[in-house]
Amino acid sequence: MNVIRTVKELRQAVADAKAKGLTVGLVPTMGALHAGHVSLIDRARRECEFVVVSDFVNPTQFNNKEDLVTYPRTEAADCEKMEAAGVDVAFIPTVEEIYPEPDTRVFDLGPVAEVMEGAMRPGHFNGVAQIVSKLFAIVEPDKAYFGEKDFQQIAVIRRMVELEGFNLEIVDCPIMRESDGLAMSSRNVRLDAEHRALAPEIHKVLEKSLAYAADHTVSETERFVVETINSTGDLETEYYQIVDALTMQPADPSAQPGKGMVGCVTVYCGGVRLIDNIKY
Ligand code: AMP
What we know:
Blueprint: E1 2-4, H1 7-19, E2 24-29, H2 35-47, E3 50-55, H3 65-70, H4 75-84, E4 89-91, H5 95-98, H6 116-120, H7 124-139, E5 143-147, H8 151-164, E6 169-173, H9 193-198, H10 201-212, H11 218-230, E7 235-244, E8 261-269, E9 272-279
Parallel strand pairs: 1-4, 2-3, 2-5, 3-4, 5-6
Antiparallel strand pairs: 7-8, 8-9
Helix pairs in contact: 7-8, 10-11
The site of adenosine monophosphate has 17 residues, from helix 2 and strand 5.
């Protein structure tokens, strides 16, 4: 595995691979890699001949300074995991390398970025669009891999790709979970033992909501999820919204949850902000 820290060297490595006729897959990450990230890398490895993984904590997508400062950074362990997964290039740049000057671009992401995470984390998706568009422009991958854990992010990236005219395939990959159902996340390491024990309840309630939804409306199901989660110890729901899985727009409150709808939740668990989702 080639560990590359500069844009210039990354461009060269990708150009060499393309000159050999290899198809290129890109997996953007913020490091602190876990089995969820590895599932994306494995998929890229199966589908592409040259796999680039970026490992970069992107400051422009953090709307909360403390979250940025305390974000886990585990480069050595990440490199071991990437190497074991057969990654060709690990791209691990500094902030100065990616942003030699401030990125002032504002993307017209439209309605997909206005709801849920977009409403709660101002500027977050614009920062995601900034970093992902830079990576796409440098690597020009054939395919790029994203996890459904960040369901809304995929819709935002598809919108950015359309706006910028990138010619690549966005591949969405299923959520990887711990054995107790908790969605894997780099932020899970911040949970103390008590809250780690509570956190799986989020997924359990989402699963229960599938049966509940069989004879209830969207708004009743949303209320069921929020009330059930909030009645568990220290869990506090920020939002639970059932939306169209492509447009991210709220489903008709009086409809019954069904195909093509996804429920997205954000829960504070002992000060740690966790997200998850479920398809109806
Ligand atoms: P992050 O490092 O959190 O920015 O995540 C990098 C990529 O890995 C994103 O596309 C995430 O959606 C994806 N990812 C994170 N956690 C999981 C998970 N539990 N299952 C599947 N994909 C994930």
